[in-house]
Amino acid sequence: MKRRNRNQLNIDKGLLEALYFGAVTLLCVISLLRGCAARSAEVATASVETGTENSGGSVASGPDSSSPEGAENGLFYSNSRGVRDYTGTDASVRKNTFDPARFGYVSDTSENITYYDDSFVALQGIDVSEHQGDIDWKKVAEAGYEFVFVRLGFRGYGEEGTLNEDTRAIEYLRGAENAGMQVGAYFFSQAVTEEEAEEEAEFAVGILERSGVKLDLPLVYDPEFIPGVNGRANHVSREQVCLNTDAFRDTAEAAIHCKVALYANLYWENNMFDAETLNEYEIWYADYLDAPETPYHFTWWQYSETGTVPGIKGAMDLNLWIRRMD
């Protein structure tokens, strides 16, 4: 048999390596596309001008998931669709002081995560929108859920950006309050200017006033990208997002003297909000892993979008509120 020379062996080895890395790259692309397709399928159930997210779930990667400038000092994280992403960190933002080793499931059969530390109390909660349909709030409360964030409405992600009230918002606010739960609210934003953010705040305040419910928890500003479609706010700059956030807060807090908090995931914390903004607000943080990966402070953690809750049909967002015992 003719022996292959060293050059031929090197060529074969190089070819195999190229094929291997090509296959790995292809699998990563397929995974990313499947994640975008899943999110697109959710938002496709409604029209461009009246549709929005199907629940309070997060979109953990932005329209451009490439590594941000300075990412060599950052960390990897898994976004809500299981895709690995890369993000930088900002040392000037207040830190996450929770011990990741103390997060764990309530039991071997439970899907609820808690925080095991005698210095804190960990409360279970949910967030809801009209997509949840009929809710038996008594069953929800009896199952141990103590707080809820109710979607008040949303701005359509098409060019016109119409404002829409969640058709179940007032019903849910009153139902949760009557069940003895602590009630907060959120508004899904697609604002591209400060004026639009002010308009969203006024719209949200009007719904709260008509409900007659006084919030126990903040009114949360929830700006998000809409992947898979040309969302009107998909290309708003970081600076503009922060200006919109402050405009929403100032308008809402002046109108009803409520507190405004901010919904974010790790991508948004590092790429769409500046340090000053993150330090000024309480954070409702979204991250669907066994422990929150953010290096930054947060008050509420949305840890699942596939939970089951007595009294509600379908997959649910599950949340944890960790409070220091004084």
Which helices and strands, and how do they pair?
Blueprint: H1 6-43, E1 75-78, E2 84-87, E3 103-105, E4 113-115, E5 120-128, H2 137-142, E6 145-155, E7 163-165, H3 169-178, E8 182-189, H4 194-211, E9 219-223, H5 238-256, E10 260-264, H6 266-271, H7 275-280, E11 283-286, E12 300-307, E13 316-324
Helix pairs in contact: 3-4, 4-5
Q: In words, what does this structure look like?
A:
The protein is 32% helix and 23% strand. With 326 residues, the chain is α/β, with parallel strands linked by helices. It has two domains: 1-44; 71-324, TIM Barrel (Alpha-Beta Barrel). It has an eight-stranded mixed beta barrel. Strand 8, helix 4 and strand 9 form a beta-alpha-beta unit. The protein starts with 5 loop residues before the first helix and ends with a strand.
Short description:
Helix content is 32%, strand content 23%.
Give me some keywords for this one.
disordered N terminus, 326 residues, 2 domains, TIM Barrel, alpha/beta
Largest sheet: 8 strands, mixed, barrel
- Strand neighbour order, sheet with most strands: 5-6-8-9-10-11-12-13
CATH top level of the largest domain is Alpha Beta
CATH architecture of the largest domain: Alpha-Beta Barrel
Based on DSSP secondary structure assignment, what is the total number of beta strands? 13
User: Structural class, judged by helices and strands?
Assistant: alpha/beta
CATH superfamily label of the largest domain:
Glycosidases
CATH fold field value of the largest domain: TIM Barrel
**Total domains, how many?**
2
Strand residues, percent: 15-25%
User: Per the principal axes of the C-alpha atoms, what is the gross shape?
Assistant: globular
Percent helix: 25-40%
Report, as a whole number of angstroms, the end-to-end distance.
Answer: 82 Å
Task: Round the Cα radius of gyration to an integer and report it.
Answer: 22 Å
What ranges have pLDDT less than 50 throughout 5 or more consecutive residues? 1-11, 28-52, 54-84
Number of helices: 7
